[in-house]
Amino acid sequence: MQRTLMNDLFAWKARENRKPLVLKGVRQTGKTWLIDEFGRSQFKDVVRIDFMQDEGARTIFDGDLNPRRIVRDVELRVGRQIEPSTTLLAFDEIQEAPRALTSLKYFCEQAREYHVIAAGSYMGLALRRAGESYPVGKVDELTLRPLSFEEFLRATNGDPITDVLEAHDLRALESLHDVLSSRLRDYLAVGGMPEVAQAFVQSRDYVECRRLQRQIIDGYEADFSKHAPARILERMRLVWKSLPGQLAHENKRFVYGTVRPGARARDFEECIQWLVDYGVASKVPRVDALRYPLVGYEDVSSFKLFCVDVGLLGALAGLDQKVVLDGSRLFTGFKGSLTEQYVDQQLLAHGHSPVYWSSSNGTAETDFAIEKDGALLPIEVKAAENLKSKSLKVACEKFGLSRAVRTSLSLYRDEGWLVNIPLWAIGQIDGLA
């Protein structure tokens, strides 16, 4: 599979003022594979230390954090020489060795000639527990997310159709609307976790995909038990399990009472933050005005909470495999939950930080809004071909916005103030709206 983030790694290697790189992402998104592929194609050698498998390697960082002393000890441990210009030095599962992360500050200040990548899941939380400081300003950072729809499409249908989509030539794709809609249904069921997507490419077996999704979920829940404070563990699990129910509401705003009757925000705020920091959930805050900058209008008390991956959300919900095979039910069932989850996932994958807006009296709401080229763009998600967009019109008139996006199963059409983008093309919103 091809990962778009590989291009960012190429750019990092070529950068004159390159710093050590921290590659973050939730477990099972393919960080180790990406580093190995990058190293194989760009370096003569890759020296990778996995701190989860090789616990003894953590002792390398027990003494001083002089980079050249660290490199020497790594060379002794692996029996190979590390050449600054031709060797990629990778610290994998770095959350298991917090002082190794701290050492990146000194690689940046004293030994920037080395190509150093640190990869880890559960990054921020493990560090807070260990009491080690994060090397703020001393590292470059990238986040690896599940496969975007474009990456999934490239793996399932090849380069030609994906290249045309990424070139924003939607007119050339109109005759392939049925093919792209079919691949979108697959993506909503399979999701973007690399192992699951690879299994689907090889077998087209939805049952096997669901088995692998359950394994990943079990692994996440085991991590909760391993890392979360015991005092919030049970509440974390309740929030995690409540995600399908939260998104099944007509109004997908997070409701504490769905987690547990009578629940209050203060009982669950820390649990939610742990899930977000760990990477298995993403928070979309409400704004009370669509004005720039959006962050200045956030209402911290209201938000939507999405899962890291649309396929995992289906598995959490116990979505029947028959729904996967029935295209119309997949898009209209579950009250559009999978569709809105999918759009959030694509916006994040393409570098956006979405919010949503609702009027104070609750009569109008946009599903998402993003900042684009210095302007604000409200977005409405339609699970089928219902093209009514009353709330978008209200939002545009209220805040003086000249452009809005509706995404649905309909073909691309530009009506001036409103542009309809097919759901299978919403990841290309920057070039289409």
Characterization of the model:
The chain folds into two domains: 5-143, 3-Layer(aba) Sandwich (Rossmann fold), CATH 3.40.50.300; 149-432, no CATH class. The chain is 46% helix and 17% strand. It has 19 helices and 13 strands. The chain has helices at 5-14, 31-42, 67-78, 98-110, 123-130, 149-157, 159-166, 177-190, 194-203, 206-227, 230-248, 256-259, 265-278, 310-317, 321-325, 327-332, 337-349, 390-399, 429-432; strands at residues 21-24, 45-50, 87-92, 115-120, 140-143, 281-287, 298-307, 355-358, 365-372, 375-381, 404-408, 413-414, 418-422. Strand 8 (355-358) and strand 9 form a beta hairpin. The radius of gyration is 23 Å and the shape is globular. The two termini are 28 Å apart.
Question: What brief labels describe this structure?
Answer:
single chain; 433 residues; alpha/beta; Rossmann fold; 2 domains; eight-stranded mixed β-sheet; five-stranded parallel β-sheet; 19 helices; globular
Number of domains: 2
Strands, total number = 13
What level of helicity do the residues show? 40-55%
Please tell me the overall pLDDT. 92
The dominant shape is globular
Distance between the termini: 28 Å
- Beta-strand percent range: 15-25%
- Helical run tally: 19
> Can you tell me the residue ranges where pLDDT is under 50 for at least 5 consecutive residues?
125-129
Structural class: alpha/beta
Largest β sheet strand count, sense and barrel closure: 8 strands, mixed
**What strand line-up does the widest sheet have?**
7-6-8-9-10-11-13-12
* Rg, Å, rounded: 23 Å
